[in-house]
Design brief:
It contains 5 helices and 4 strands. The protein is α/β, with parallel strands linked by helices. The chain has a single domain, classed as Roll (Diaminopimelate Epimerase, Chain A, domain 1).
C-alpha cells in the first residue's frame, strides 16, 4: 500500500501542511496516494477527484494532489471554480517546485512545498473567510493498489 511508503511522522507532516494551507484560503486541499497508475495520470486524478466528492464544495475550489508513488507520477488538479479565476499556467510553478524536491528524493518535502504554495496562491483568489467550514477531510486518502 502507498501508506507504507510514508512514515507516520511524514503522514502527520503532510496533514499539518494541509491544515496550515487551509488557514490562508477557503480552498480545500486533499492528498491521495497510490502505488500505481496504469492510465493517464490526469485521467486518474480526475477519477479520484470525483470519488472523493471534491467537486461538491460550495465554491468549487478543491485542489487534489494525486501521486502514484511507485510509478513516479503525480498531478495537481483544481476544480472548476479555481480554474475559472486563476491565470493559465497557475499550477506550473508548483509542479516544478515539487519536481525539484522529488528529484532530491524528498517526496514528503515536495508534497509539503506544493501544498504550501497552493495555499498561498489560492489565498489571493479564495481568501479565508471567518465563517469558513472545512468541507473536505484533511487526512490523506490512500488507494488500494
Amino acid at each position: 500500500m502507498a501508506k507504507d511508503s510514508f512514515s507516520k511522522e511524514e503522514r502527520s507532516e503532510i496533514v499539518a501542511a494541509i491544515k496550515a494551507a487551509e488557514l490562508q484560503t477557503s480552498g480545500e486541499i486533499q492528498v491521495h496516494l497510490e502505488n500505481h497508475c496504469k492510465e493517464d495520470v490526469l485521467d486518474r486524478a480526475a477519477h479520484i477527484f470525483k470519488v472523493l466528492k471534491m467537486h461538491k464544495t460550495e465554491e468549487r475550489n478543491g485542489v487534489l494532489f494525486y501521486m502514484a508513488v511507485k510509478d513516479h507520477k503525480f498531478a495537481i488538479l483544481g476544480d472548476a471554480g479555481i480554474n475559472k479565476k486563476v491565470p493559465v499556467g497557475f499550477w506550473d510553478d508548483i509542479k516544478e517546485s515539487m519536481m525539484a524536491e522529488f528529484k532530491k528524493g524528498e517526496i514528503t518535502g515536495g508534497l509539503k512545498t506544493g501544498i504550501q504554495m497552493a495555499g498561498e496562491q489560492l489565498a489571493a483568489f479564495f481568501p479565508f473567510q471567518k465563517d469558513d467550514s472545512n468541507e473536505l477531510p484533511d487526512e490523506i486518502s490512500f488507494g488500494k493498489n
